[in-house]
Structure formats: structure tokens, C-alpha cells
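Chapter summary example.
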Amino acid sequence: MKRKAGQDRSITANWRPATLAIRGGTARSEYGETSEALFLTSGYSYDKAADAAARFAGEQEGMTYSRLQNPTVEMLEHRIALLEGAEACRTMATGMAAMTAALLCQLQTGDHVVAGRAAFGSCRWLTDTLLPKFGIQTTIVDARDPQAFLDAARAETKLFFFETPANPTMDIVDLRAVCDIARERGIKTVVDNAFATPALQRPMEFGADITAYSATKMMDGQGRVLAGAVCGSEDFILNTLLPFTRNTGPNLSPFNAWVVLKGLETLDLRIRRQSESAVTVGRFLEARVPRILHPGLPSHPQHELAMSQMDACGPIFALEVEGREQAHALLDALALVDISNNIGDSRSLITHPASTTHYGVAEEKRIEMGVTEGLLRLNVGLEDPRDLIDDLDQALTAAGL
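The structure predicted for these 401 residues follows.
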């Protein structure tokens, strides 16, 4: 395949995110297709036996096996790297495959990790259950306080791992402060940036070493496929992450990569419109529920920090009512907003984390994280926000609010 003219870094460096999301990383075959080609192939043929040997030895350019390279997947990796401002990217089958690989590829027995307490349930399972099985110690801290990372760091600390905004409590981490602490001590930072995507927040601009994504969320944005991605330096991706993924196999399918490529074309439009609608819906809810956790509203305790490192607030926020019974009553009364554990969709979705995404987290840890029985997470979609407010209004009334 031939890379589209102008795809060298000297040209794309001047392109803005909305342009990169459509044209970044584009490669075309000899047919000159305008839409990215979908290469559904597991392997590749060689003209000569010596060519196969040379490719496996790294002496000849070309592809060998779709667990390692695929033209469609490679286009997506180039595009995400450009959006992120990273030297390289490696995609994965799911967001959790990306998180797992980003951690395990660079840790070993005796290492120590400092992780934020507010996190997706499966990410807390990684830090609290999986890593200790391999003799990797973890310390959980309140990531809203940079000093907590400094206090928890040890001589054997290799990674700081956190989300911002965090799922589902919307805790905000001071990226520059925490990344500076890590860099001064030779500690790598791994940032889960799934809620914001590089369209709204680019952690590497604040000193982060590695960003990880569930591309299932805003990048696809329409609830169609599972996908994940890890971005970092070329040295990290090729010499640390790739040896892990090539031998463990959490690779992304070409079809799913193609779907995410199509999703990225509208990412900038979608996430900005959804962010605006989320603020509108959030303002309505502020007057109706006991508590709302929305980084786009001045009522959020870290609003100024969030807006200083994000271009917009994103479509996701949390609200709190009086316990599980009232939370479920509100969900059951909704007519437009769907009950679903997914996020980042163009459709508005709502979930009760304590009984779904964080069901597997022990109750005492859920409470520590701020995931109460009355907490609800709302993903504001592309519907007219007035219709969403009408639906929420009648559901709140039905739930006694």
C-alpha cells in the first residue's frame, strides 16, 4: 500500500485534530480508494522464500501475520497516534486488553504501582487482584491529591496509573503535577483517557508517558464494536509493548479497526456537541437531585482544573439519589434514555454502577471510591437535550424527586 501524499510528520504536524481524525494515517492501495480499505486477511504471501526469512528477521519491510500487522489496523494506529501527539500506537481487542497490556508489559515481580482509587471496576481488579498475583505490590491513593502519589512512591515504584476524569465519580487528576512527580523519580505514568479521548484532552502535553483507551467508547461512538489502544514513544511501543502483545495476542480485528476509523471521522463533531448537551442537562439536574458530579459545571470541586486541561467537559457525568431503590425507580421510569452499562455512545445511556460496572468490587472498596448505592452515571447522547430533560424530569418525578 502507498501512504497518501502528505502523510509524513512534517505535513501532519500542522493539521488540527478535526482534520487528523478524518485524514491522519490514510494509506491507499493501487486502486486509489477514498474510504479506507478493509483487509480481512490472517496472513500474507511472499514472492520468494528468502523474502519470508528477511521479513521475519526485520531486514525487509512488509507484513507477516495479522497478529502483528494489518493494513487496516495500521491505519487506525497511525491515526490515533497523530491525534494523541504520540510517536506510536498499538491497538487491542478491547479497552481492558489495552489497560492490561500497558501495565503487564513493563512490570515484574517486586515492582510497585501507585494507582488512583476512583477507577472502572475492571481496572481496580487489575490493581487489586491481578498484579498482586504476580508479586507486584499496589498502593491505592486519592488521585485528586498529587501529594498522595509522592507520599506513596517507593524506590521500587515503576508506574503511576490513573483515570481522569475517573469512572464513574468524575474525579479529576492534576496531570501536570502528577506527571512531574513521576518524571522526577523515573516513574512511568499510564493515563486512562477514555472519557475525554484525545479530541478533548491529550495527557502527553502535560508530561504523561503512556495513554490507554477503550476505543469502544467515544472513538467508535455508536455502540458497534469493542476496541482498545495504547499510545507512547516509539521505543516503548516497539520494544516493550509489542513483544508482549505479539506473544499474548490481544490484537484488534481488521473489521473492528475499520469501524473505529469510520467513528473517528465524526469524533470531533460528536464529542463537542455531546459536551454542550451534557452541560445543559447537568444544569437541569443540579436543581433536582441531591448531588451531581459534572466537571463542566462550576459546582464540581475541580471544575477549574478540569477546564484547564480539557477542551470541553465530555458527555459523561454522575448524579446521586437516595439509595439503590430510588436509583432503580428512576431508571425504570425512563422512556427515552436507555439503561445500559456502556458509555460514549451517540445515544443517551444511564447505568447504576454499584450493581453493574462495579458489581465485582467489594462493598468497602466501592464506598472508598465514592460509588454509592445511589450513584448513577449518565452518558448524554446526540438527541435534542430538551427531549432528554423532559424524559429525566418525568422519571425523577416518578422516583419521588
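To summarize the output: The chain has two domains: 2-264, 268-398.
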